[in-house]
Amino acid sequence: MRSFIANAPAPNLCQIESETLLTEKKNIINILKLVVKDLIDISLKNNRHVDKQSEYLIYFYDVFENVLNHGFKGKKGFGLGLLRNKDFTVLLDIIGSKSDSAACLNSIKEITEIKSSFGRIRAWIRMCLMQKKLAENFQNLINEKEILNEIYDPESILLSDESNIISGLLVGLNALDISIDLRSEALALDQPIRTINYSLYLREKLPDSEESGISESTDEQRINEIFDQKNYVEELNKKLELKNEELCVKLQSLEKTNCALGEKLSNLKIENVELVAEIDSYKEQVKKIQEECKVKIDSVYQDVQTERDSFNLSKNSLDQMFIDLQKKYFEEQKIKTDFETELKMTTTIKLEQEIALRLLENEVKDKNDLVKLLREQLEQVKGMNLDLINEAKKNETEYKRQDTLVHDLREQLSKFTFEIEETRKQSEINEKELRKKDEICKFRLEQIDSYQKKLTELESSYLIEKNWRTELQSEIAELEEKLSQSNSKVKSMEEIEQKFSISQVENQNLVKKIHELELTLEEMGSKLGMSHLKIQDFKDVNKQIHGFQWESDEKVTMCKICTKEFNVARRKHHCRRCGGIFCNECSDNKLPLPSWPKPVRVCNTCFDQILQNSDIK
Based on the number of CB atoms within 10 Å of its own CB, is 32 exposed (0-12), middle (13-18) or buried (19 or more)? Predict the structure, then answer.
């Protein structure tokens, strides 16, 4: 499988390492494609179940481990000479950075029997296969290109574009059902990495045109190969007959499904008629409900309008009453303020009168003191008179003068007493007037309290009318809700009509599908007829298998596809189908041909044609 160059000049070590990595990459990817295909074929034969001890499953583990190991150098790589016994903890850290893989690795860490880092990677591969997440987790690993550049060689598989092809191949393994006990296989997981055994997929090479002559033994081998091809064609005929039988069974099942679909169609038609009748009845009910709702709404609107008119009239009258009462209230407040000012004036006058009375009393006291002094003086004068009786005669004129003075003093005393009595009378009159004014103020205050009570009564009546108005509004809202409910019913009826129309469309689609199935049945019958013709054509082609001519190496100097010239590094290879000469890159495909029992080298054009023909079949 590996293509090593002979008799070439010795290049540098880096070039040799890169070339070996490239050849290993191609071989590993090709082997992985074949292993995945065989695994899927085995699983389809066993109802998607694969035994854990299957040879192809173990071979897949080896190949996938070599995919992860290809070009691995670690954080401190020492080249390709130390591929084994490496520390894969860095790769485990990258895998564990994802949430799905982290949970898987945590469960693997609990298995103490697995000690090496690569053993945990092997356990992770098996867990992902069981959980059907190997393709998803491998794609997540590939996306970490920046980290992988540090631990892998640039020519490695994980850093190449072919890694996306591998993730696409792994998607097909999601169909497999595998059950593995990791604890029982823990010792096998810690073993070193095994090299790929290519013996399962190695094919015998045909002799190139470079060899001189063909011996008699090769002729006998060719005859044996032709007989093998004949047997191969007979086996193909048997397989085609089995396919014919299977197609007949499918035809019978399709006829049964056709009958069942016809019965379903008749049932759907009956249900259609019933739905139409129900829709008509629902429409009549909706019309009746709409008419009843319209009558009720008209009556309610009339009642509401009359109530609104009466409410507006009562509101206007109440507003006028309220305005009049407000005016009266403001007038009474003005009167009250006037009375309060008058009361203040009277109180001030009363205070002034009290002050004046006090002053008069003080003056009266002073005058009484003067009277007492005068009496004392009179007594003194009498004593003096007794002493001066003898002198009285002498001083008669002086005595007369003293009499006149006493008479004046008495007159002054009488005047003072009269003034005091008048002031007392005036104070009594003022007190009576103050009492009358107090009574008038009390009467006005009582009137104000009565007006306030009337105001409160009017406010309560206004609140009652307001509540009545809110109740009317709530009733109107209820009626509107009923209207909305009726509208929703109408909408539901319209939805039923739409569903009915959709069911009609579905019925039409079912009729079309039945027609298409009938056409497919006819096509299947025609294909069955064509298959017999193809078998005969295949037999005719088998006779002409070796009819092509091999091109001579001397005449051809460049590849037919890429037009690159051949040299020591770029060797010539014959296509076993068309006989043309191509380079290794343009003929790096192998397929089983009718003339060869085993897969042989085929050019890219023939490879594409064979694949197209197989797809068409």
Answer: buried
Residues 6+ apart with CB under 8 A from 437: 339, 342, 343, 346
Distance (Å, whole) CA 155 – CA 569: 19
The pLDDT, as a whole number, for residue 583 is 93
Q: How far apart are CA 450 and CA 556, in angstroms?
A: 132
Using DSSP, state whether 272 is helix, strand or coil: helix
pLDDT at 586: 92
From residue 487, how far is each of 326, 475, 501 by CA, in Å?
A: 50, 18, 21
Q: Tell me the pTM.
A: 0.35
CA dihedral 180, 47, 57, 117 (to 10 degrees): -30
pLDDT score, position 64? 87
Which residue do the tokens 């403001």 mark? 330
Distance CA 584, CA 417 (A): 160
Burial readout 526-541 (b: 16 or more C-beta within 10 A, e: otherwise): eeeeeeeeeeeeeeee
CB 28 within 8 A of CB 196: yes
Give 165-189 as a DSSP string.
HHHHHHHGGGG-B----TTTTHHHH
User: How high is the pLDDT of residue 279?
Assistant: 86
Supply the pLDDT for residue 603. Answer: 92
Token reading at 565: 């010239």
Residues in the chain with pLDDT < 50?
1-11, 77-85, 203-215, 533, 536-537, 539-540, 543-544, 546, 616-617
- The dihedrals phi and psi of 342, each to the nearest 5 degrees, come to -60, -40
Q: Which residue do the tokens 């009467």 mark?
A: 443
